[in-house]
Amino acid sequence: MGHVIKKWIPIFIATGSGLLTLAGYLFPDTTLSAYRDQFIEWVVIVAAFALILGVLNILRVHSQRIVNSAEGWPYSLILLVAASIAWIPPLFSGPTGSMTQGILDYVISPLGGALAALLAVTLTLAGVRLLRHRRDPLSVLFIAVVALALLGTTPLLGFEWLGEVRAWLIQVPGMAGFRGLLLGVALGTVVTGLRVILGRDRPHSEL
Known about the structure:
There is one protein chain. This protein is mainly alpha-helical. Helices cover 81% and strands 0% of the residues. The model has no long low-confidence stretch (mean pLDDT 82).
């Protein structure tokens, strides 16, 4: 009996819920869509509580590391301090969220710009090292694309056409690669969902 409760009942609930939700999307004009919407609302509620449990677990684990002075405990202290500070702006910003917006404008956005600049420098250095070790057409093409992408963002007089080349690189080959990645992620998600629905993968079961 315990084997049935631990293995087959979770599989039955997960498979039935997944099939009903999938059927609600395949047949949107039937009553199945109401069950689909209800299941999605339950998922949102469960996910919210799972997020709260995850945050509490992070606080518990890192608090124990600080108390026990385990290896890397200063990083745990920084994490807890940063997590505590992050709760302050939403509590005192009010409905306008001015304090939160100020942090986004004056802290997070400058840090993002600095990281983007470091990424550009890192790509340039990687390209130079690549040419030192490999001098084939693909390496030269990589350096040319990086150079055009970097120079296309700079306001150089007489080289405004570089901005158009950069835009073409982003919209045509760059977007093609990005769509390929999205298709791969979508197919992986579909395969994972089907394996869970068919009972091949059982993350919800102990057996």
